[in-house]
Amino acid sequence: MPQVQTTSVHRIKRMLAWLVGIIAVIAIPLLSLFVYFVDKPWREGVLDIPGECPRSFAASPVTAHGAKITVDANPEACGYGFAVQREPGNVAYYTLEVEKGVLEAGEMRVSVVAFDGLRKLDRNQRILQAPADLSGLSLPLDVPASAHLIEIRFAGRRGARFSVEGVRLVPHARSARAGVSGIALYDEAMQVIADNAYYARQLPADFRERWRPAANATPGEARSAIRQVLRALGDGHSFLMDPARVADQPRIAQASFVAPHWMVLEPGIGYLEIPGTRAGDRVLRDRYRDAVLEALRAGSEQGVQGWVVDLRDNRGGIMWPMLAGLEPLLRGQTPGYFLRVDGSRDAWRNDTTTASTTVPDLGQVPVAVLISGRTSSSGEAMVVAFRGRANTRSFGAPTFGVPTANAGHRLADGTMLQLTGALFVDRNGKGDGRSLVPDESVRELGVGDRTRQAAVDWLRQQR
After folding, report:
1. Which of 162, 225, 280, 402 can pair with 213 through a Cys bridge, CB separation 3.0 to 4.6 Å?
2. For 270, which DSSP code?
3. Beta strand pairing call for 269-273 and 404-410
4. Is the CB of residue 331 less than 8 Å from the CB of residue 298?
């Protein structure tokens, strides 16, 4: 009898376990649907963005004088939001305005977002880095008809310290953005994609209709639909920038600029780190190029006879300042090509300029190239530039996997489509748009820099 009772207890426990599992399988999707579709009326007024830091929020962004917000997000990320409920039914137009303010340290994210419940419908966002004058900051948003809630956010991180005054969420009778309808924006983008995207032929035949938004779609809803088409291209590199982000690019390029740096690792061996750069204007491009050239010139004067070129943290940007700086190591060579979808190839510019004539010809010196999974886009272009070069070997881990060329296409409302239009191929015509594998794989174990050490060991053997 005790044996029978024990067996029955085990059976009951197993049945209960199965029942709990079945309930979980059913409940989780239902809960997800609830979160996705159901309004959350308690999301209204001031919202604390998680994180402990000194901060204050005074007044309200829906009053004439606006709110005042101060945040000292050190060391944690924190900030404030403010949510406003609205009755759905009509498209509405709002602008988040800041009368005056300053970002003294760190980084902050300012956004205005339209929601249907917890479902994000559209967003306008700015990411700012210190130091930055926030006076006159303005973020317009066309709010879709189905939106129930508008939320503004001021969030700081990386030791952000900022204060803003006169923060207002201002309604308008008509859009503060360019007068282009959502459906017109979508149709324009589809034609640009069809004409210029390298992988456009891989889209389904009905792609224009498959992702077409409603006839009364706002530009924001149209951009969401366009992003779905870009994802369907499958190149992992094409993307869209809304007009506010496009306008912010010069400031971002200035704030994010990191100059290349170098050092002598040991007698005869130099180390040169080539970071990514968004240097769009001539001054920043020349500054970047000249930093690389000066490193190569100074290293040569100090007896460097072999170089470690570190591209591991190069996430891309604009390739031409990088290539112009590295010209002495590639002198007299055609380092790569753009391969078009029709099979045609355009050679990369690699001219010896007045700036680079101060550096001796280093086209035959040994070079060890370091790469990683963070090396992407134009960073991968630099990897390609050294492939097939004599006295060259690469070390590390496979790259991110977008060795492809993007080109910008501005739409009528100022939206920018960055579309992959070509593949990077090396001097021998090799390249398929996939991750680049190093000549020698090195696994980092968290102690020391094994990749760099492997490169140095190889350079010693080249003497």
Report:
1. 225
2. E
3. unpaired
4. no
Euclidean distance between CA atoms 209 and 230, whole angstroms: 14
For residue 11 the two structure tokens come to: 């059976």
> Quick check: 221 and 212 in contact, CB under 8 A?
no
Query: Can you tell me the distance from the alpha carbon of 360 to that of 296, in angstroms, rounded to the nearest whole number?
Result: 9
- Please name which of 257, 269, 273, 250 lies closest in space to residue 382, comparing C-alpha atoms: 273
Ordered structural domains, the chain, with CATH: 45-176 (2.60.120.260), 182-234 (no CATH), 250-461 (3.90.226.10)
Position of tokens 């680079």?
Answer: 356
The two most distant CA atoms of the chain are separated, in Å, by 98
**Cα 38 to Cα 45: distance, rounded to the nearest angstrom:** 19
DSSP letter string over 139-152?
EEEEE-TT--EEEE
- Tell me the pLDDT of the chain (463 aa) as tens digits: 455 455 666 677 777 778 877 887 777 666 655 544 444 445 789 988 887 888 999 999 999 999 999 999 777 789 999 999 988 887 788 999 999 999 999 889 999 999 887 778 888 888 888 888 999 999 888 888 888 899 999 999 888 999 999 999 998 876 655 567 889 999 999 999 999 999 999 999 999 999 999 998 888 889 999 999 999 999 999 999 988 788 878 877 887 789 999 999 999 999 999 999 988 788 999 999 999 999 999 999 999 999 999 999 999 999 999 999 999 999 999 999 999 999 999 999 998 888 899 999 999 999 999 999 999 999 999 999 999 999 999 999 999 999 999 999 999 988 999 999 999 999 999 999 999 999 999 998 877 899 999 999 999 999 8
Q: CB neighbours (10 Å) of residue 48?
A: 11
Cβ neighbourhood burial of 418 (10 Å; 0-12, 13-18, 19+): middle
Q: What three-state secondary structure class fits 358?
A: helix
Q: Report pTM.
A: 0.76
Asked if 209 contacts 244 with a C-beta cutoff of 8 angstroms, the reply is: no
444 backbone φψ class: left, alpha, beta (φ>0; ψ -120 to 50): beta
